[in-house]
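Q: How do we represent a protein-ligand complex in a form that can be generated token by token?
A: Start from the inputs.
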Amino acid sequence: MTKYRADLTVLSSTDVAQDFTLLRVSTHDIDPVIAPGQFAELRTVTPTGNLLRRPISIHDYDPKAHVLSFLIRRVGDATKAICRLRPGDKLDTVFPLGNGFPLDKAGNRPLLVGGGVGVAPLMLLAKQLISCGASPVCAFGAKTESELLLIDEFSRLCPVHISTDDGSKGIKGFVSDLPLFSPSELSSFSSVMVCGPTPMMKAVNNRVASSSIDCFVSLETMMACGIGVCLCCVTDTQEGNLRVCTDGPVFNTKSLKW
Ligand SMILES: Cc1cc2nc3c(=O)[nH]c(=O)nc-3n(C[C@H](O)[C@H](O)[C@H](O)COP(=O)(O)OP(=O)(O)OC[C@H]3O[C@@H](n4cnc5c(N)ncnc54)[C@H](O)[C@@H]3O)c2cc1C
Ligand code: FES
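Then emit the structure tokens for the protein with FE2/S2 (inorganic) cluster bound:
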């Protein structure tokens, strides 16, 4: 899969919730092939003190309109600087990176599970699964209602089940507490694909582990180069240490030492 390094033009930057920005950029005349779950390494073109690019999942991609989207939580200097960009500004982008979720292993009724900003890669995943004839179902969890992201947009694609830690929306509890994870309901799913904080992904995997269903998780480790060179992102697997940026970020949990 061809990788690109380009200064892409920002089309829009929209606050979708407190601390969360939806950033849309133009891919110009580039025609990238992007698998859902792949990510990009981003930084502002004008130096802000952060020399290293930051890994951000590809949220959506419209190849006809040449528009690439990112859903970004503004946590530190780099993400804040990226989210301050305005239409016409340039975004230094290396993409697409990593392996992505395996569409061929999703089956006809995959369960897509997102925690917080972990819903980011699930938009393109849901769209591509639907275009392949699958009927995904989403389960999203967040601390509180205001941190549930793009629920209306996801609900236009497929059923969405919700949990919040404080009970402000959906069931009160963690996403893994949703009735969908009871053995009888879980058995109706063909696979489980997860992105979110590691404890949440481990809790989901614990619910799925006793079934025969494959569970794929997108790991979020610290990354520097994003292209397999610096080895700062390695994770311990049944096959030894693997690089999350190039061998992942998506892994079948059976291959992880969880
Ligand atoms: C494959 C991958 C995909 C990602 N996709 C998204 C996405 O779609 N949207 C999004 O908002 N974020 C995503 N992230 C996380 C994002 O890369 C970090 O939030 C970002 O690098 C923080 O940079 P910063 O300079 O703004 O903050 P920093 O000042 O570097 O860090 C702020 C805080 O975030 C923590 N942090 C930094 N990097 C990471 C990381 N990689 N994982 C966990 N905690 C981190 C730091 O420990 C610190 O507490 C992804 C990470 C990976 C590895
Ligand atoms: S981030 Fe450098 S090897 Fe993965």
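The longest strand covers residues 4-17. The mean pLDDT is 95.
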